[in-house]
Amino acid sequence: MLSMINQKAVIKNIKETEIRIASFVVEHNIPINVSDHLVNLINSIKLEPKHLAKLTYDRTKCTSIINNVIAATRFEYLKNYLKTNKFSLLVDESTDTSSVKNLAMVVRTCQNFEVSDQFLTLLLVANATADSMYKAITDFFNSYDIPYTINLIGFAADGANAMMGKSHSLQSFLKNDIQELFVMKCVCHSLALCAEYVCRKLPDEVETLIRNIYNFFNHSYKRQYEFKEFQHFFEVNPHKLLQLSCTRWLSLLMVVKRVLEQYAPLKSYFTLQMADGINNSLTISESLNNPVYKMYLELL
After folding, report:
1. DSSP 195-210
2. What is the pTM for the complete model shown?
3. Which residues contact 239 (CB under 8 A, 6 or more apart)?
4. Where are the beta strands (DSSP E) in the chain?
5. DSSP strand pairing (87-95 vs 101-111)
6. Cβ distance 114 to 74 under 8 Å?
7. How far is CA 9 from CA 50, 281, 291, in A?
8. Cα distance between residue 26 and residue 165, in whole Å
């Protein structure tokens, strides 16, 4: 009888612990995927209860351990590895909200036939010119005695002129130092440029149609709710319409696919809106009823 009571108490404590962990994740807005590893972390703690009670870990201590122990140890290991092994360099320049320009450096290494990308450092640069970035990178390697002219075998970046220009760019400067350097542009950036040039051959009205459809529903829950009834009638998944974004490369494909998926309910919905004299619905309805526009969308 006593063991049964103890078993129930244990089950109750386990359930309370699970609820506490879930509440912790919600309270601190932590990604739910973290829970896959959190229990394993808790189970790996080997401290006795009397010692666990002495554990302290506030945000100041956590920040200090990350910066001064984990990051410093990993950087020391990576720095020493680059001194004696071949590696490739991936860089990207970005400006943060305080208008400070940073140059992120990632190295690609191969250890025991396993290729991995590892963050190396974040450098402050005065400006995003090729001269400034080249000086920052070479000064960094030289300050830590990393023989980049011997061990650096590959370089990758986006297609910006300062990065990949033919004569006066970061890649041209590095190639002057390393004649056999393998250079690769960002594939996503190149594909985006190809897609952009192709789309320039299409009428502007196609892009205007896609933007008008999204803008028509964007700030009106009433219209979105009404459109769901049309989706239900045509037995189409009630997916939201997507926004065409200039900063998200190759987003056009996803937007066009969604419009084509919802084409029948959209066509019917805007025909009704046009009959009711709703603003902008006439232009959208005429475009949706024009088979040429759908042909362009199918082509895309």
Report:
1. HHHHHTTS-HHHHHHH
2. 0.66
3. 258, 261, 262
4. 87-95, 101-111, 114-124, 152-157, 182-185
5. antiparallel
6. no
7. 21, 64, 69
8. 48
**Could you tell me whether strands 87-95 and 152-157 are parallel, antiparallel, or unpaired per DSSP bridges?**
parallel
C-alpha 77, offset from chain centre: 27
What are 15-67's pLDDT values in tens digits? 998 898 889 889 989 898 888 888 888 888 888 888 878 888 888 988 999 99
For residue 1, pLDDT over 60 is answered with no
Question: Residue 280: its pLDDT value, please?
Answer: 78
CA distances from 267 to 141, 209, 222, 252, 271 (A): 60, 12, 18, 20, 6
Nearest CA to 100 out of 78, 124, 79 is that of: 124
User: Rounded CA gap, 284 and 236, in Å?
Assistant: 20
* Residue 164 neighbours by CB under 8 Å, 6+ apart: 157, 158, 170, 171, 183, 185
Strand-pair partners of 124:
102
Q: How many CA atoms lie within 13 A of 224 on its CB side?
A: 12
Per DSSP, helices labelled H in 28-89 are: 35-44, 49-52, 59-65, 71-84
CB atoms within 10 A of CB 161: 10
Which tens digit of pLDDT belongs to each residue from 60-95? 988 999 999 999 999 999 999 999 999 999 999 887
